[in-house]
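Let us work through a complete example step by step.
Step 1: write down the sequence.
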Amino acid sequence: MPVTEFTTDPDTRTITITAQFAAPVERVWGLYADARQLEKVWGPPTYPATFVEHALEPGARTIYYMTSPEGERFGGWWEITEVDEPHRFAFHDGFTDTDLQPDPSMPVSECVYTFEATEDGGTRAVYTSTYATAEALQQVVDMGVEEGSVSAINQIDAALAA
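Step 2: predict the structure and record it as tokens.
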């Protein structure tokens, strides 16, 4: 399984996920840069994602939704703040309402995704999300962020091999 560590730290209001992939950094980056590839892994296996807008460039906005087995949609948005291809990108990450507009009642995190080559030709990825408050962090933990994130990231090796 790609995910090797999942930690939450209420003191720093962070979630950090570490994963190892059996593909070079450029290939992993390509998955995040291409909405059609990202749809295959962004969300738990039973909640496939659809990206309506997506670009990995500073100032760009990404809009997506995941569809539950019952057909209910859960949306999200990113605002890309930094890109250092193929090693790092940073973004604000939030939830949307049913019209795919940012939902101000839900937490927003500051995310940094980093990718570094490993000696075996693979990639070590570190995903860090920082919340404004410990309460916001706890809210996403209570919503199942660990189970959802781990199951989504654990799909990536298969998608990269396809």
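Step 3: interpret the result. The chain has five helices and eight strands.
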